[in-house]
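Two proteins follow. First one:
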Amino acid sequence: MTETARADDSKTVAPATSADAKPAARARSRKRSGAVATVPVVEAIPAVAADAAVPADAPEPAHHHPNLGLAPADMLAGFPAAAEEMRRDQVLIAARAMEVAMDCDATIAKRYNDSARRSLLHDAELLTERLAMCISSNDPHWLAEYAEWIGPIYRRRGVPLADLATICEGIRVATTRLGPAEADARDHSLDAAVAVFRKNGRLAGDRHKRNALLRWLYRGV
């Protein structure tokens, strides 16, 4: 080998070892990590108390039909003791109401036979039961809705709704052992039912007594 070749070999760079490459790689990784932006730390959201969403003094929901997702009617919001006493004596109340109704309208005894009067006596018991529900909940709609429902039944039976209104007045007279507030609840309920009977009694198909003049005018119609 010549001296020129030895000089060239001395100028050749020796390859880097693994020990020499590790510090350089760590330096490059530090440069890259320093270029990444720091993510700000989000402060913890304070926990909301479970009962903070509903105030303590929130009013109770109104009484509605439970199928609507609201609270049902409270049947103890009125006078449940008086209602229970009325249910216990509903047979006597119905009998007294029929007597008062026949005293007010003497034609009831003539227009109905014994079987029909017994049916009216049973109807008076049902009206008394509905009135007890109204007094127990202090809500007159139980009797008013019942008066709306039974109209077609009495048309088929040939019973004028005015007779049921008269029976309601008899129930008013027969229920005397009530306090002032209980009597007010009874009167509101009976007034609502009588208004429904009077209104529906004017519709076609009811067996009420027609006006003689109108019957003569429309005799050919």
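Second one, unrelated to the first:
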Amino acid sequence: MNPAKVKLESPEKEFEYEKIARTIDKMNDIEEVKMMLKYSIKMGMKQTEVFNNMLLIQIGDDISEY
């Protein structure tokens, strides 16, 4: 896995990523790194759930119009 291969669209997100990447590079406590990774994974999963729920609501609203 190479994060350099993932391109972010907005400069703001790229800047935010760079700040986080530098913070991670400075870390020495592996337990802290593990906790951050677990948090990031869980937040990504939560974001997917919320997005899917929003789509289902939108689809439901679109279907009920017919």
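SUMMARY FIELD: Residues 30-64 form the longest helix (35 residues). The two ends are 45 Å apart (CA to CA).
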